[in-house]
Design a protein that fits this description.
It is built from 19 helices and 20 strands. The longest helix has 16 residues. By secondary structure, it is α/β, with parallel strands linked by helices. The strands form five sheets. It has an eight-stranded parallel beta sheet. The relative contact order is 0.12. Among the domains are: about 400 residues, Glycosidases (TIM Barrel), CATH 3.20.20.80; about 45 residues, Oligo-1,6-glucosidase, domain 2 (Alpha-Beta Complex).
């Protein structure tokens, strides 16, 4: 979802859920088509690459990840708002400052939420390049990078171009803008390779050298008002060569020079995000933007135009995918796979998406519906019991074919939600719960501007145990786990914009966070890299990468114990078997877990979360006898 100052997300698309009646046992858990002749959707094997089933994803929000080159930092002139609206005292924000402390220029604009969107911290591509060794050490194998294309905002969902990296993410912003101004943006033969473009390709090469895939954000529903086509449209109105590119409601009438009647559709009513127009039949985009997007897609997937995609990106995440016609996505996905048959395309769909993936031809979806919602309801909010959790997982997992199921992006937090740690701090013990979404993205609950009582403090040690339990399930469930950058470092933050604090690094000293956006009392929380939590994520990622059962194995619930609030499940693949028990309760429990015949063998403890937890394991031949502390998980494997 595109970031924005006010929560606007309330998707209502309804797709009939095709639920396969799978039991809880272990057994079965360059070439372009015309808009009028949209290609047939591919099979799961054709649209879901094998590597995506083994991926461990890491989401990077570039402006807030790392400032590797202070010389390219944004200036007052490059901000989203007109320069006259930004105080003259504006400066880039110090990376390590208390998040809620306002600079002098921010106080001139009003309250915290009046100025925070004008902040820039200077995160850039050099910062990502510099931290590839860190990501490698964590065990990451695939990067999802939020928009990197030229745009004024901090989030870059308001693009001014799809065929250039933002100049302030590269080493020569002024020179890049001069080169871009010399082009015909709809003629790829005139496109230059800017310094920022070159640095991005270097990032892709160096990531590939570490066996990391790179997937970037495609925002093909709307642009910013600085986008070349919209600028020409706004100036020339119905005479513009781009007059049919956008959803224009009314052109300015030259006969009324004192009145501007120009009106167009903005994404969810936001005029700074004008929407592209669909063709007359509503089956695809208009031919102009459609062709431009196909050309830009090829630029990033096959930079040298030689038919070898190895130097290009490995796929795309598609913003607000359901708001673009399915016919366009069929053609676009076919084009992507023509460029690189091994490419991965993942849609941003918050609700049930199995039928949509089939129709549009995407590889997978960001798995809010099938993973994030149930996980928050059970492991974070304690709003549903283990048996209901298991049933939700079964229903939503079974809606997808196995190859797609294994490649779904299993995220918990993102740039569009509160951070996982803050979800735990504000779990349902404080009184928040809804039956379907578990208040996952309910602005009235998670947005500080609507709920000033929402807690902004750091998690306590017991709350960190719950975060670790979520990480354990994420790394041992069906689908490809995805972390939002900084979760492994211990970061916390409420919903947008507070989930977009600058990354906490071990080589930096941060101010204590003791301010509050509304001046409320709060604890003084030290901000520092959490080595112990990082170690937990590193350990669990290693576990996942070492075991085929966790990446491609079958899944079966062994026992859902509602009385003790415990869940035991098994992952099996060929000769590889692991059994995992989660104790969501705050209380220690002793439990007898009966084993099906296929699992009756001696076991030993392989991992506990948290590390060193006092877990006891005994066996009576037909069952595991477990003693598990509260908010603790244990992984066992067959004894040698």
């Amino acid at each position: 979802m595109s970031p924005r100052p006010v929560r606007l997300q309330d998707y209502t698309r309804s797709v009939v859920l095709g639920i396969l009646l799978v039991g809880l046992g272990l057994g079965a858990v360059g070439c372009q088509s015309s808009p009028e002749e949209s290609v047939a959707p591919p099979t799961p094997a054709e649209r879901t690459p094998a590597w995506a089933q083994d991926a461990v994803w890491y989401q990077i929000f570039p402006e807030r990840f790392r400032n590797g080159d202070p010389s390219n930092d944004p200036t007052r002139q490059t901000l989203q708002r007109p320069v006259a609206d930004v105080p003259a005292a504006w400066r880039p924000t110090r990376w390590t400052r208390d998040w809620y402390e306002q600079a002098e220029w921010e106080r001139e604009t009003g309250g915290f939420y009046d100025g925070v969107y004008d902040r820039r911290y200077g995160g850039d591509l050099q910062g990502v390049l510099d931290r590839l060794p860190y990501l490698d050490s964590l065990g990451v194998t695939a990067l999802y990078v939020n928009p990197v294309f030229s745009a004024r905002s901090l989030h870059k969902y308001d693009g001014s171009s799809y065929h250039h990296i933002d100049p302030n993410f590269g080493p020569d912003p002024a020179g890049d803008r001069e080169r871009m101004a010399q082009e015909n943006p709809t003629d790829p033969s005139t496109w230059h390779v800017t310094a920022a473009d070159s640095l991005f390709f270097a990032l892709v090469r160096k990531a590939h050298a570490r066996d990391m895939r790179v997937v970037i954000d495609g925002v093909f529903n709307h642009t910013g008002r600085d986008f070349f086509a919209f600028q020409d449209l706004a100036e020339n109105q119905s005479d513009s060569r781009y007059a049919d590119w956008y959803a224009v409601n009314a052109f300015d009438d030259p006969a009324t020079p004192d009145t501007n009647e120009f009106d167009y559709t903005g994404w969810w009513g936001v005029k700074s995000l004008p929407e592209f127009a669909n063709n007359e039949a509503g089956t695809t985009l208009q031919s102009g933007p459609r062709q431009y997007i196909l050309d830009a897609t090829e630029r990033w997937m096959d930079p040298n135009g030689d038919g070898d995609p190895s130097d290009g990106v490995d796929g795309w995440r598609l913003d607000v995918a359901e708001e673009v016609p399915v016919g366009f996505w069929r053609d676009w996905n076919a084009h992507v796979r023509d460029l690189n048959p091994d490419a991965y395309t993942v849609s941003e769909v918050w609700e049930e998406a199995s039928g949509y993936l089939e129709d549009a031809g995407f590889s997978a979806t960001m798995n809010y519906h099938g993973f994030a919602f149930p996980v928050k309801g059970f492991l974070v909010d304690h709003a549903i019991e283990p048996s209901r959790f298991a049933e939700l997982l079964r229903e939503r997992r079974s809606a997808h074919p196995p190859r797609v199921r294994n490649a779904l992006q299993n995220l918990v937090g993102s740039h569009d939600t509160p951070r996982l740690a803050t979800m735990v701090v504000n779990r349902t013990d404080t009184g928040y719960a809804q039956p379907e979404r578990f208040d996952y993205d309910n602005g009235a609950v998670t947005d500080l501007r609507q709920n000033p009582d929402y807690k902004v403090r750091a998690p306590t040690a017991p709350e960190r145990r719950l975060q670790r339990l979520v990480a354990l399930f994420q790394m041992t469930y069906v689908g490809a786990p995805m972390m939002y950058h900084g979760d492994e470092a211990g970061m916390w933050g409420a919903d947008d914009p507070d989930d977009r604090k600058p990354m906490v690094w071990p080589d930096k000293s941060y101010d204590v966070e003791d301010d509050h956006p509304f001046g409320h009392d709060r604890p003084a929380d030290p901000v520092r890299f959490n080595d112990a939590l990082f170690g937990t994520y590193q350990n669990l990622i290693s576990l996942r990468r070492e075991h085929d059962a966790l990446r491609r194995g079958s899944f079966g619930v062994v026992q859902a114990d509602d009385e003790r609030d415990m869940l035991t499940y098994a992952r099996t693949h060929s000769q590889d078997t692991l059994v995992v028990t989660l104790n969501r309760s705050a209380e220690a429990h002793s439990a007898r877990v009966p084993l099906p015949d296929s699992l009756r063998q001696p076991y030993e403890v392989l991992r506990t979360v948290p590390e060193g937890a006092s877990v006891r394991l005994q066996q009576d031949g037909t069952a595991l006898l477990l003693e598990v502390p509260g908010h603790t998980g244990v992984v066992v494997r067959p004894a040698p």
